[in-house]
Amino acid sequence: MFRSYRKAAQPTFVAVVLGLFMLVLAACSGVSPTVASLSLSSAQSQKNQQAQTYTCTQTCTYTYSFTTLNDQHDPTFNQLLGINTSGKIAGYFGSGSANHPNKGYTLVSPYGQGNYSNENFPGSVQTQVTAINNNGETAGFWVDGQGNNFGFIDWDGHFTSYKDPNTGTGTVNQLLGINNAGIAVGFYTDGNGVNHAYELNRQTGKFTDIVPVNGASTTATGINNNGDVVGFFIDAHGNTDGFLLKNHTFTHLSFPNSNNTQPFGLNDGDQIVGTYAGSSNSTHGFLLSNPLGQKSFQSIDVPYGIGTTTLNGINDAGWLVGFYVDGTGNTDGVLIRPIAS
Questions:
Q1: Fewer CB atoms < 10 Å away: N or C end of the chain?
Q2: What count of Cα atoms within 13 Å lies in the side-chain half-sphere of residue 45?
Q3: Burial letters 166-179, b for 16+ CB under 10 A, else e
């Protein structure tokens, strides 16, 4: 079920950069990341360096920079959700509360003044741009005046709205990942509040269920150009576990000693990013490498966050995007880049 629209010309948003932080991490992927040669705005200044150790399953050392990126239209709430090989980022601003609706955008290097472009489904009350492929096509979801959620794909300047035909009385359909072939993944919520993951073929409009073994209330969140899918589900014990679907086989993913692991994105090398719950209700980002072998988890926290880091996207150069909550209670978008030593 879908509707198609031609995208109008999009005005430009103004960016504000709040800081750049360099950090040496004890990491655990076992393979040095490749650093892309993209430039940052001259307005982005480097802060001090600090050595810090994270929970890892192997030992190696990487240096990362953390750059806060917020749109001036609502600098109190930004989330960066996807990044492609050219460093183009998808996200949105606005908390969704009264007078602060979600408004989608894309952001390009050098991530400074004039580099934001709005991306909102025509006629929507709210829009989140949740994913972007290497060709610059985007996916996400939009909300109508009655609060119903619909997935969308913006392909070659055309917006198309999607709703899984099995949704029934549920009001939530969201697309959260898309690859270069136009295969998207997401979920719908049925009338009983249960999530159902699916894969959508943009070209044919066909929906295919994604059902992990022994999993319930399932959400698919990311897909790479090999067709590998990540997401999460509720297991028989009430825990939230991640999954990787590759070659028709599900692999369960759980950050060590956590009962809540939620993968949100992956690159073509099957490096996976997401979030996990720690002690005292804290939230931490993670990077998982080698998910089908000797799994190598790395915990990543934004240094100036308050225990609320979420990682949503990763490209093939190892650049990460996500968001965190700062000391004043604002939700800030963040770009995390590996730095060559």
A1: C
A2: 3
A3: ebeebbbbbbbbbb
Residue 1 lies in a domain: no
Q: In the structure encoding, which two tokens stand for residue 98, read together? A: 């009264």
Count of beta carbons in the 10 Å neighbourhood of residue 241: 22
Domain of 238, in residue numbers: 7-339
CB atoms within 10 A of CB 97: 9
pTM of the model: 0.87
Low pLDDT (below 50) residues in the chain: 2, 4-59
pLDDT for residue 62 = 67
State residue 341's pLDDT score.
56
Q: Which phi and psi (to 5°) does residue 244 adopt? A: -120, 125
Q: Is residue 200 part of a domain?
A: yes
The domain total for the chain is 1
Give the pLDDT score at 61: 59
- The domain that contains 23 carries what CATH number? 2.120.10.30
The H or E element containing residue 244 is: strand 240-246
Query: DSSP string of 107-172?
Result: E-TT-STT-EEE---TT-SEEEEEEE-TTS-EEEEEE-TT--EEEEEEETTEEEEE--TT-TT--E
* 2 is a domain residue: no
Asked if residue 240 is part of any domain, the answer here is yes
